[in-house]
Task: structure prediction
Amino acid sequence: MTINRLCLLLPLAALTATLAACSTPARDDYPSLAVRPAERVTGTAEVVAQPLYVPPPPAAGVIDRLAQLREQADAAHARFITVAQNRRATVTGGRGAAEGTEAWALAAAATADLDSARSQTMIALADLDRIYVDAAVNGSELERIATARDAVAALVAQEDATLAGITGTR
Result:
């Protein structure tokens, strides 16, 4: 008979344990989510005035290099203008020529001369870009470098416009 009783009590005990697991504690058992005194912002912090950062000027060698690159770009631009004036008629004359003809070949060679002359100004611009990046990384003053770079970039833009006008690729 004890086994029969045990068989009846075992499912009843399992049911009671299962129902007890589903019960929830009273609301007072959970911690409050309200702001605690330690979480409140109190006190004052004084702002310490920091002196403004004044970047150091570029080194004397950099200033000299800027002047050299400007001169190099100006000379290259003057050569480009001369080449453009000398090759304009050849390029425009071969503009509608059939590929492989003498006029087409002469125009292609003249266009290559123009591209080559333009590349000399681009070399100076690339060097100025490198100097600008180096100065920016090192925290140096950028105004003088940017001024030189912008002037050479304007020459390159003018050469691009001239080249596009001559070749008809606007």
